[in-house]
Design a protein that fits this description.
385 residues, alpha/beta, Rossmann fold, 2 domains, eight-stranded mixed sheet, three-stranded antiparallel sheet, 13 helices, 14 strands
Length: 385
């Protein structure tokens, strides 16, 4: 029988009531729970599955026996110091709690279950390439579609971007009063190119807010597009901005169920993978801590909105913290990060700071100049030797 073994007391030269304590303890607990054993002048606790409250009750109810030795306190302290265990009907399970449940014929069962059925039978190449030096660590002012067409297949590790929020907002240089159908057609032309140049196993992360005032679920439209292109939906993260004032003040049908207007304090990160959910990288290039990992995989990120939009003269920026968490969770150091709508360079700035290579593209001269200045001034963390 398998147990977790803990040394309770060592180098016992003279037994001082310990034998009696071992006998009482082992009669009180079954061998499916815990047992105390004397071995080579050492006392060991063998744990399998135990109710910590039962241990406390044992100590309180056997004070007369336990007072002959200091084992009681060591027992409780030793058990409570173990932080890794499973729970089963109120009992702490110390054996096999974290082993994957064995499933016979797993691969066939996964296929039968229809895992990402919509992305099967794709024609993505598995051969990844290096990005040409002319596009590495560059910010390019130009038409994103034209620039992307010059880049070879399968050379970008991760795309992080947000389609221009020109809807209901004024951008100074580039008029975007196009009809919705035309807008999405042009957007998807750019996304077609990002899919082409994305590596096999690479990720695309799109920060998008539905066009609530126009009742256009852009996050669903964009997600459907990627699924139609055989991309695997890896997940969705809610970016909770905690902006309870909300930009729009309309209530719809005030105090009436006729047509109330819903208010939202969050945006979405839609995450897709090309060909495979796994993105390969070297362990030495992982820069996410254990605590960060546990926090970031909870798919609701409470991050304040960008406060410096006036400083940079841009009406719709996401925060650096948002990019930082996404890059740490979904990419490795030295990966190539692309933002085809780079704006004033938030993505490229964070990518450089986190030791990623980058490529940013934007059609605005003004924004590109700001992006170059911001990115160049970024201080690299834990620079690779």
């Amino acid at each position: 029988m398998e147990y977790k073994e803990i040394l309770i007391k060592k180098n016992i030269t003279h037994l001082n009531g310990e034998e009696n304590i071992l006998s009482v303890f082992n009669n009180f607990f079954t061998d499916q729970e815990a047992q105390l054993k004397l071995n080579n002048n050492n006392i060991y606790l063998f744990l399998k599955e135990i109710d910590i409250e039962k241990v406390k009750y044992f100590i309180n109810s056997h004070k007369n026996v336990l007072k002959e030795s200091d084992i009681a306190n060591k027992l409780l302290v030793s058990i409570e110091s173990i932080k890794s265990y499973g729970l089963n009907n109120g009992k702490r399970n110390y054996v096999d709690y974290n082993k994957e449940r064995k499933v016979g014929n797993r691969k066939q069962k996964v296929q039968n279950r229809g895992i990402y059925y919509y992305a099967q039978n794709n024609d993505f190449s598995r051969k990844n390439n290096e990005i040409p030096k002319e596009f590495e660590n560059k910010i390019i002012c130009g038409d994103s579609l034209k620039v992307l067409k010059k880049i070879p297949d399968n050379c970008i590790d991760l795309v992080f971007t947000s389609p221009p929020y020109n809807f209901g907002l004024e951008y100074s240089d580039n008029p975007d009063d196009k009809k919705w159908k035309k807008y999405f057609e042009q957007l998807f032309e750019i996304f077609d190119e990002t899919i082409r140049i994305l590596k096999y196993g690479g990720r695309i992360i799109v920060n998008v807010q539905p066009l609530f005032s126009d009742y256009i679920p852009s996050h669903h439209i964009i997600s459907n597009y990627f699924m139609q292109r055989k991309m695997i939906w890896k997940g969705e993260i809610l970016w909770e901005k905690n902006n309870y004032n909300c930009k729009y003040t309309a209530w719809g049908s005030w105090k009436s169920p006729s047509s109330p207007y819903l208010k939202y304090t969050w945006e979405f990160l839609e995450i897709f993978s090309k060909g495979d959910l796994k993105h390969n990288g070297e362990n030495k290039n992982i820069d996410i801590s254990a605590e960060e990992f546990k926090k970031f995989v909870v798919a609701k990120w409470s991050i304040a909105p960008e406060r410096d939009m006036k400083k940079y003269g841009h009406p719709a920026m996401f925060s650096e913290k948002l990019v930082e968490q996404a890059l740490k969770l979904f990419s490795f150091k030295n990966d190539i990060i692309l933002d085809p709508f780079n704006g004033v360079g938030t993505t490229t700035t964070v990518a450089k700071r986190l030791n990623r290579r980058y490529l940013g593209i934007d059609i605005s001269d003004k924004y590109s100049d700001i992006a170059i200045e911001r990115t160049n001034s970024a201080i690299i963390e834990n620079k690779l030797l």
